[in-house]
Amino acid sequence: MISVRSHRLQSSGNKWIVFALAGFILGACSPKIRPTERPVPKTPEAKVPPAVKVIPKAVPVHTPVVSLILPFELDKIDFTSTANRNNLSKADLAVDYYQGFKLALDSLAAKGANFKLQVYDSNGDGSQGHSLAGNPKVRNSDIIVGPVFPEGMKAFMASLSGINKPIISPLSPASPLEFKNSNLVTIIPPLEYHAWRVAQYIKQEMDPVKVFVLRSGFSDENKYLIPFRKAIDSLSKKRIRVIYLTVSKGNLDALLPQLSTTSENIFVVPATDQAFLTVTLAALDKLNQTYPVTLFGHPNWLKASYLQASLLQRLKTHITSSDRVDYRAVETNKFIKAYRKAFHLEPGEYAIKGFDEGYYLGSLLSANNDLFKQLDKSGYEGLHNQFTFVKTANAGWVNTHVSIYQYQNFELKPIE
């Protein structure tokens, strides 16, 4: 038997494809493994605290305090059953002024202002002035009005050290140089400003060559004459001559050679003595028949009932005033009606002054306390006068407004 060797088949070159296909099939059948997705942690939101309401603290509104020092003299009034109206005359000034002043503050309060009014009795003497100057309530006031009389003001000022606030002199025309206090506010123009106003009017409106001054011989007239002479010399640069004559028993003969028959002869008479004025003005009236006369008198002549309007008109008399009320004016009548309604009384002279001053001072207080440092920028036109202040070197503020009046149709009328 013959045996024959069997031969193996040789492998093909495509053998690698078989393995690749097998791997693919196996891969397709095996389960797919995916990475586990972890949740992304959320960032916690920041909690916003609730808004806190900030309530601003209420700033207290300052209420201006006014201390009013008047001479009621309550400890001197007779309240017995035998008392009459004359016993109360000393308190009339204080009551009138107080009621006018209060009515002014009430009028401002009706418009939204607010004040605290403190009223004190000066008793009309210096000792009470010393006491009030040490009163803490008075010292802590925003302004102090009063005392009224010069003696009381001097005593008050002497004890009022270390106070830097307005001190009002409401009714006295005394020169502020007597007090020498830079905080003082003098509302009634002193006599020297009347003299200055007359000199100014003579220079501006008449510009004469000379002025005649008739004197009685009383030294008190120098309070008018000295400032008049200074003013006329200053304004005219000494071109207007001032000729003085002390008149005795109405004798004016010494002046005759110097008088003019064609132009006005200017006379200034600063006297207030009734006997002197009666005789001297009669002599001027006689002189006026030949020599034209224009007369300038003392402001107190307004209250001299013995001076006849017809005589003063013939002499073309001019009189200065700082407190003349026009009772025909609309505003004056409004005030009178309001005063009657409030107090069931007729207002007197001091009630009108109290109203004007109270309204002016109250208006400044309600606006700004700093206005008291610049009163020259805060004018006022009241019922009895205008307020035009100037600052003095060491005597505070002074109202300088003085009006000039002339007799026409037998009554005084303003000429400016």
From TrEMBL:
Query: Matching Gene3D superfamilies, A to Z?
Result: 3.40.50.2300
Q: Read off the PROSITE patterns from this record.
A: PROKAR_LIPOPROTEIN
Q: Which InterPro entries match?
A: Peripla_BP_I
Supply the name of the protein.
Answer: Uncharacterized protein
